[in-house]
UniProtKB/TrEMBL annotation:
SMART domains: Glyco_32. It comes from the Bacteria. This is beta-fructofuranosidase. It comes from Mixta hanseatica. Belongs to the glycosyl hydrolase 32 family. The keyword Hydrolase applies. InterPro entries: ConA-like_dom_sf (IPR013320), GH32_Enzymes (IPR051214), Glyco_hydro_32 (IPR001362), Glyco_hydro_32_AS (IPR018053), Glyco_hydro_32_C (IPR013189), Glyco_hydro_32_N (IPR013148), Glyco_hydro_beta-prop_sf (IPR023296). PANTHER family: BETA-FRUCTOSIDASE (PTHR43101). The lineage of its organism: Bacteria, Pseudomonadati, Pseudomonadota, Gammaproteobacteria, Enterobacterales.
């Protein structure tokens, strides 16, 4: 089916194809050039790549893709051309080289390098048996692709089952070593019931190119917990001298976050239910908490939860992310006397994961939410949000602001404040990736419209103290939130991705549109009595260039 040879001698051969994808690896302990041959009628190759361990950190992997009866290498120097082939491929937002991607995992900074792991299905642009993809960067924008990091415990393709290496987080010990905690869903034949999820710990190899060892650390379900038991967040409490693990689950049908403790990080014991959802969520389809996150900002602690399956009855929005602030002491979380905060009103911001970078808390979310369908012609599916920075405002609410692209990404930056006249501004542009920053006083009404030549458009509307993201014939205005006063607005557009940050990130909205990939005109209309103090347009080039 496929063979490698060197100087005429066959040194590795896959003799026969199975009816399902299989994983093979070969290490070449020689300087002799390799010849690769395969039978096109017998072999279907979903993913093929190679790397040199000593140059992986600088160059990443080189993919081999089929091209007219040959395998064409696509490495770091060819990556810009590869990413430019699709008009809906974003320039700033991370997306996989090929095939399906969802939740961010294992976010961490090791030395001076950021590591992004992510849920990945290497055989299709549809969701399937879960692996962990991996990419690295020094600035959170310019990424290098790494080898697949985690694979399912068994070949689920062969079993005709789903499952695999589900979500989890990185944990860095005081000695600088890093381990990864994740959920393994064992072979499953039902997506909603009857499966088994266990927690595992993975130790990486020398170059972080693969896992050196994996061990199972937790499988016992607490009373009242059914099959949903996943997505560990692990940290060490220096005061109590033990480890904590937070897991998403449901208890007697109510979505909940569970806390476990351990002295050595190997043997874990259930401590208590740290948070349990109101019955409202179960009554409207909420099945369980997933991808819980828990971190401190100053003296306050922040709990992040996603409630899978929940549909908001008033709007039809689903799978929303929520934040709850409070105090955490002696192993107990005491929520503040505030309602849950909806983190993003656009709903294409899910499975958020944060990590520490010095004194800052940064994070990414999966920029998709199962609802909209990408073109079947695309070679990939799934993107990450822009990296975001987290802080609390003076009212104690959680705010998210974008970590701005580095100067190397900026094509040009222009100021258009003087062009605002009589409540109007019209800007002809030709951009697939840009940000628009507005500041103003006395704004009671604002309509920002982005248009392309083919008629596609979207708009951001502020009226009657409500901010709304809308695209005619693609939604009906349900993506909105109350905003008493609009003073500052920052909008990022990137090949149909829209991320909005109002009033220093106190209100955020994210949507992924597939009907508009480029903007030719920006128009702004606002109440003439307002005073616009800043209009800054920044255009960006692709992060995949050298």
């Amino acid at each position: 089916m496929l063979q490698f040879s060197a100087e005429g001698a066959v040194i590795y051969a896959i003799k026969k194809a199975a009816d399902y994808y299989q994983y093979f690896t070969y290490t070449h302990y020689s300087d002799r050039p390799l010849t690769i041959e395969w039978d096109e009628d017998a072999a279907a190759i979903s993913l093929f790549y190679y790397w040199l361990p000593e140059t992986l950190a600088q160059e990443g992997v080189t993919f081999l893709v089929g091209d007219l009866h040959a395998l064409r290498p696509v490495g770091r120097s060819e990556m810009a051309e590869w990413y430019a082939k699709e008009t809906l491929r974003p320039a700033l937002h991370f997306s996989p080289f090929i095939n399906w991607m969802n939740d961010p995992n294992g976010l961490s900074k090791i030395g001076e390098t950021y590591h992004l792991f992510y849920q990945y299905h290497p055989h299709s642009t549809e969701w399937g048996p879960m692996h962990w993809g991996h990419a690295t960067s020094e600035d959170l924008y310019h990424w290098r692709h790494y080898p697949i990091f985690l694979q399912p415990e068994q070949n689920l393709e062969a079993l005709g089952a789903t499952g695999g290496a589900f979500s989890g987080t990185a944990f860095q010990e005081s000695d600088g070593s890093t381990r990864f905690w994740f959920t393994e869903r064992l072979p499953a034949y039902d997506l909603y019931a009857g499966y088994r999820e266990v927690q595992k710990c993975a130790t990486p190899g020398r170059w972080l190119d693969k896992v050196e060892s994996v061990k199972q650390v937790l499988s016992e379900l607490p009373a009242g917990v059914n099959c949903d038991f996943r997505d560990p967040k692990v940290w060490f409490d220096s005061e109590r001298k033990h480890y904590f693990m937070l897991l998403g689950a449901s208890v007697d049908g109510d979505p909940a976050a569970l806390l476990f403790t351990s002295i050595d990080s190997d043997a874990w014991a259930f401590d208590h239910v740290l948070w349990r959802a109101d019955k409202h969520f179960r009554q409207h389809g909420g099945r369980c908490v997933e991808c819980p996150d828990f971190f401190s900002i100053g003296e306050k602690w922040v709990l992040i939860i996603g409630i899978v399956g929940y549909t908001e009855p008033q709007t039809g929005r689903h799978n929303l992310l929520y934040a709850q602030t409070g105090d955490f002491s002696h192993g107990r979380f005491t929520p503040d006397d505030k309602p849950l905060q909806t983190l993003d009103f656009g709903t294409d911001f899910y499975a958020l994961q944060t990590f520490r970078d010095g004194h800052e808390t940064l994070g990414f979310a999966w920029l998709y939410n199962w609802a909209s369908k990408k073109s079947a012609a695309s070679v990939y599916s799934g993107e990450m949000s822009l990296p975001r920075r987290f802080m609390l405002n003076s009212q104690g609410a959680l705010c998210m602001q974008p970590v701005l692209p580095p100067e190397a990404c900026v094509i040009q930056q222009t100021d258009h404040r003087e062009a605002c006249q009589h409540g109007q501004l019209q800007l002809p542009v030709d951009a697939r990736s840009f940000s628009l920053k507005l500041n103003g006083e006395g704004v009671s009404r604002l309509l920002l419209t982005l248009r392309e030549e083919e008629g596609g458009q979207m708009e951001l509307n502020y009226a009657e103290n409500r901010l709304t993201l809308r695209a005619a014939e693609h939604d009906d205005g349900q993506y909105s939130a109350d905003l008493e006063k609009l003073e500052a607005l920052e909008l990022f557009f990137d090949a149909g991705i829209v991320e909005v940050f109002a009033n220093q990130g106190s209100l955020c909205g994210t949507r992924r549109y597939f009907h508009i990939s480029c903007c030719r005109e920006i128009t702004l209309a606002y109440n003439a009595s307002a005073r616009i103090t800043a209009v800054q347009l920044t255009q960006y080039r692709s992060v995949w260039g050298q």
